[in-house]
Design goal:
The chain is an alpha+beta fold and 565 residues long. It has helices at residues 2-21, 85-91, 140-154, 160-163, 189-192, 241-245, 259-267, 282-286, 319-328, 331-338, 367-376, 394-409, 421-430, 465-473, 493-502, 508-526, and strands at 28-32, 35-39, 62-67, 96-97, 106-107, 110-115, 121-126, 167-174, 177-182, 219-225, 229-234, 250-255, 273-274, 291-294, 303-309, 384-389, 412-416, 432-433, 448-449, 454-460, 529-534, 539-542, 545-546, 562-563. It has three domains: 49-72 and 217-299 and 538-563, Periplasmic binding protein-like II (D-Maltodextrin-Binding Protein, domain 2); 93-208, Alpha-Beta Complex (Dipeptide-binding Protein, domain 1), CATH 3.90.76; 302-534, Dipeptide-binding Protein, domain 3 (Roll), CATH 3.10.105. Helices cover 28% and strands 20% of the residues. The chain starts with a helix and ends with a strand.
Length: 565
């Protein structure tokens, strides 16, 4: 832990230096080993109150959150974006809730649980004082309904199915008893019970869930004004009265996509909490009286940035082409130019400070080898033309510019195509049906077309090694069941067997070896993506928010905090 914390502390000096350097309109020239990259350094812009979509109430009884975008899904089972998670934490309850490590969950609507001798059956005792926001009392049947819906109806368009991967059956075995049977004893089941996708819903109000959601959390939904705000109000019948007493009367979530505008609004006192503090703004926020940087405890992050491939369609279906792109990308240049030296460049999702880490050698950038692989795949200089569709957030769009330059060095012509978030989800993450469209057979797999060749995915995971990787690489088969995060549509039976082995035992030496073999297959054999670096996460708040922190997953833990007027 000390190694990671020290590394981040040293990196802050890089942030400070770059922040001080950003005082002119000239581009910043960033020197990295072997090359020079020209990067436009973001200047801090001071804005007035109109930067926020509309004036907000005073902070006395209202927590005003500057979110990085619109809350897209009011239905937690459908959520795919970090912009939804804070809302979900306020609105909904699950069986358990995360602690600071995300490895030892605390009770939520399940006040206790027992485990069978073989470790395969869990029986949860459900609180008898939980109410939905419409006043209806919650019972175990509501949990059964919610799980069945998210697993079988929402299915691969949500995260729940992946979290329940080991579950054979579940049922309400009493009015306030819920029983779950697993395929095998596993250390990853209990932590997964705190995942936001397992929110408990009222079956009688499902028809209105997308516009007027009902949950059992500490806040109830009031309204969402697109492009302006989402308003929540304290739910007086929330079962945890001690927690409720420490909360403000209302929460207003405001979409402020531009990170510079979001931080300026925090400094101006227009919001109390800013999601995703940009790395280049850290020094400035740290120097502002009354503001605090919220970080992950002990510097532990389970968040990382990747470049993903359209594994099933077009030129990226060719392993040699994927390997060429892998060798052409320069993670160190990206880390220096875009992330200000914060985070650890590595191809391995498991970092050296993790208990499951075993020595692993990442491939070094090799432009000449990349050219050779492209030639073997039938592409001469400039003949491979590909489309990169970055996620619709500023940092990945800037990263795409560096990757475009990296690939040009290897003779790859890369076009950057930026679309809005809903379109990105349809064309990159979920895909669209091929029927009736004029696409060649090579651009349609199992009836679904995905528009991109390269994309990016900022994965925010759970810190257990299974949690770090399983939702990215697991699938039901080669043609379906690609879980919530497998945008590549990757499947390997070898991978499936290794994941099953890794979570079938509590023996850490056995588990670590299984995950090492998984990483080796991903990096050196199949290459469905390129993992670039770890991503430490930082948020910022004013003096009203107390005892707050960022989880290893990289989001504010909205269950553990207090409020001061």
């Amino acid at each position: 832990m000390k190694t990671t914390t020290l590394r981040w502390t040293m990196a802050l000096f890089v942030v400070t230096a770059l922040a001080l350097a950003a005082c002119s309109g000239d581009p910043e020239i960033v020197e990295v080993p072997g090359e020079t990259i020209t990067v436009e350094v973001i200047k801090e812009v001071i804005v007035v109150a109109t930067a926020v979509p509309a004036p907000l109430p005073a902070a006395n009884s209202v927590l005003r959150i500057g979110n990085s975008g619109e809350v897209q899904f009011l239905d937690a089972a459908k959520s795919q974006s970090g912009t939804d998670i804070i809302f979900s934490e306020f609105m909904y309850s699950r069986l358990l809730q995360y602690d600071a490590t995300m490895m030892d969950p605390k009770p939520d609507i399940a006040e206790s649980w027992t485990t069978s001798a073989d470790g395969k059956t869990y029986t949860f005792k459900i609180r008898d004082d939980v109410k939905f926001h419409n006043g209806k009392a919650l019972t175990a049947e509501d949990i059964e309904f919610s799980w069945d819906r998210c697993r079988n109806e929402i299915a691969d368009k949500g995260r729940c199915k992946g979290e329940l991967n080991d579950v054979v059956s579940f049922a309400a075995t009493g009015k306030y008893e819920f029983t779950v049977t697993l395929t095998n004893a596993t250390p990853v089941f209990i932590p997964s019970m705190a995942h936001w996708s397992l929110a408990i819903l009222d079956k009688d109000t499902i028809a209105d869930l997308d516009t007027k959601p009902i949950g059992t959390g500490p806040y109830k939904f009031v309204e969402q004004i697109p492009g302006d705000r989402l308003v929540l109000e304290k739910f007086d019948d929330y079962f945890d009265k001690d927690t409720l007493d420490q909360r403000p009367q209302k929460v207003i979530i405001v979409p402020i996509k531009d990170p510079q505008t979001r931080i300026a609004a925090l400094k101006a006192g227009e919001i109390d909490f800013a999601v995703d503090l940009p790395f280049e703004q850290m020094a400035s926020v740290a120097a502002t009286p009354g503001l605090e940087i919220l970080a992950q405890r002990d510097g532990i992050t389970a968040s990382y940035m990747t470049v993903i491939f359209n594994y099933k369609e077009g030129p990226m279906a060719d392993l040699k082409v994927r390997q060429a792109v892998q060798l052409a990308i320069d993670p160190i240049a990206i880390n220096t130019a875009i992330y200000f030296g914060l985070g650890v460049p590595s191809c391995n999702p498991i970092l050296e400070d993790h208990w499951a880490y075993l020595p692993f050698e990442c491939p070094e950038r090799d432009v000449e080898k990349a050219k050779q692989l492209l030639a073997e795949a039938g592409y001469g200089p400039g003949e491979l033309k590909i489309k990169y569709m970055p996620e619709n957030i500023p940092v990945t769009q800037k990263m795409a510019e560096v990757i475009k330059q990296n690939l040009a060095d290897a003779g790859i012509d890369m076009e950057i195509v930026i679309v809005d978030s809903p379109t990105w989800l349809d064309t990159v993450w979920f895909g669209v049906e091929c029927s009736g469209a004029d696409w060649p057979e090579s651009r349609c797999y199992n009836g679904i077309h995905k528009e991109f060749d390269l994309g990016d995915a900022w994965y925010t995971r759970e810190p257990d090694p299974d949690g770090l990787m399983q939702s990215l690489f697991r699938a039901d088969s080669a043609t379906e069941g690609f879980k919530g995060n497998n945008g590549m549509r990757y499947f390997s039976q070898d991978i499936e067997d290794l994941f099953d082995l890794g979570k079938s035992t509590t023996d850490r030496s056995v588990r670590a070896k299984a995950y090492l073999d998984i990483v080796d297959i991903i990096v050196n054999r199949d290459v469905p993506l390129v993992k670039l670096q770890s991503m430490p996460r930082f948020f910022a708040a004013n003096e009203h928010l107390k005892d707050a922190y960022v989880s290893p997953k990289g989001y504010w833990n909205a269950k553990d905090w207090s409020w001061s007027n």
